[in-house]
Amino acid sequence: MIMHMMDWNLYRKQVLDGVGQLGKLSPDTVKGYATLGGAGAKTGHLDEKTRELIAVAVAITLRCDGCITVHTQAAERAGATKEELAEALGVAISVNAGAGLVYSTRAMDAYASLAEA
Q1: Of 108, 58, 49, nearest to 81 (Cα)?
Q2: Is the backbone of residue 81 left (phi > 0), alpha (psi -120 to 50) or beta?
Q3: Separation of alpha carbons 115 and 78, rounded Å
Q4: Selection from 29, 6, 7 nearest residue 18 by Cα
Q5: What is the pTM of this model?
Q6: What is the pLDDT of residue 41?
Q7: Nearest Cα to Cα of residue 73 among 63, 89, 85
């Protein structure tokens, strides 16, 4: 039996239920979000699987568990394999490491400016 970090299926249901409740209180907010989410599909430049793999990669960058569970399911339903998901996540890990490296130069620059103060 595989032990999971959390019950992702239950959590996804809770997130979607919560969004539904928010939609009742603030329908234009949720409609606006849905419009943004569907905008890429209308251009037709990327297929659904690619868009969802990008979404999962962005989700780990943002550390959004709700986004992870919703978009992982959508990627799988769009035909993404475990290997394709791992590759997309590898890209996200690399870019996040690159951002850390680039921002490290900012910290070094801030330190250097102390000598000038």
Answers
A1: 49
A2: beta
A3: 55
A4: 29
A5: 0.86
A6: 87
A7: 85
